[in-house]
Write the structure tokens for this entry.
Amino acid sequence: MTRSSRNPSRTGGFPGAFSPEPEDEEPKSKSQRKRDMHALQDLGTELEALPKDRLARVPMPEALHDAIHEARRINSHEGKRRQMQYVGKIMRGLDDDEVEAIRRALEGFKGTSKAETARLHLIERWREMLLRDDDALTRFLAEHPGVDVQSMRNLIRGARREQQQNKPPRNFRELFQAIKQALEARGANEATDEASAADADQDDQDRP
């Protein structure tokens, strides 16, 4: 055996069964670690800002849950800043699955919020059209046949009068609620129709 074959430092190898495994991933750069840290800190900030009912639906370890609730309790700016730093520290200690579960919950809330915002904008657009154009009521009734026609006409006239006379917007607000209820009723009817159609399809499939 030659000298070079006995010396692992010259061959670059490692004899026997103890050869180290190659690294699967390159170590993260300092800038990437900093970005990851800020991303987790931002997640903690989103959690702290959630409404109470939504926060209760986010899966998280007990330590993070307690830290978030403590941050929500603190009123002073400096005290909250220190507590949120502590929240970020706990976030950095979570494993990838825990962080991903939190991200999915927050993304789900954002999707719900977007849908709710779009629905409110639709109600606002209908109210503007109904107050501006008499023909809009005909279109609205055609799309929402269950609406009380006389009640809608009274609300529209009352809201127009309030705007002309600078009166408190009582009818204006009630018109918003009436439109909202009509849209919700239509959505419920469409959901019932879809469910009935699905049941009928299932019956057809089950029928020999």
Summary: Residues 96-132 form the longest helix (37 residues). Residues 117-194 form a domain with the Diphtheria Toxin Repressor; domain 2 fold (CATH 1.10.60.30). The chain has a mean pLDDT of 81.
